[in-house]
Design brief:
2 helices, five-stranded antiparallel sheet
Amino acid sequence: MKPALMIAALAAPALMLAYLALEQRSASAPAGNQVMPVEQAFVITHERTDTVVQLNINITPGTYLYRDKLQLTAENLTLGNWQLPAGELHQDEYFGKSHVFREPLTLILPLQHATRNSRLTLSYQGCGTGFCYPPQQLAIELN
């Protein structure tokens, strides 16, 4: 067999597999192939007083946040004890049994000490129907 024909014969199955993979992926994508930007799916705002930081996470209908993917890192500040709500049990195609949040979430974080350039970093991950957003990090300046 000539080298060019051999290359074509070997490439054809690979191209067919790639095409089928793309077809399968697009079949599981949301209708219209429109994925809402993560900043619109999970709108995060905060308010600060001298003693409390309140984080508000608006979770758009049709999306959810994983409880075990929500983490806070404090820089130049000390937080008191706080807890995440339990969330609801969800059987997930990506992570198995998980606790998730589908409704707006408010976190009340007791503020014990803060200096200039105080910052919280919120790490989170969520999904919609048929897709998941990659893990996110949001830096929240508390000056």
